[in-house]
Amino acid sequence: MAHKILNVISDSNIGGAGKLLLTFLANVNREEFDISVVLPKDSLLTAEIEKIDIRTIEIEGISDKSFGMSAVKKLSALYKEEKPHIIHTHAALSARVAAKLNRLKVVHTRHSVHTSQRLAKEPGYKKRFPYKHLVGALNNYLSDIIIATSPVAKLSMVETGTNQKKTVMVYNGINGLKPLTEKQRRSCREHFYLTDNDFVCAIIARLEKVKGHEYVIKAAQLLQKEDRSIKILIVGTGSEEEALKQLADELEVDNVIFTGFVEEIRYITGMIDLQINASHTETTNLALLEGLSLGVPAVASDCAGNPFVINDGVNGLLFEESDYVGLSKAILELKRNPKELQHLGNRAREIFAEKFDSKVMTRRVEDIYRELIADIKVRQEEVMMDDEEESGAENQA
Question: Are residues 191 and 334 in the same domain?
Answer without folding.
Answer: yes
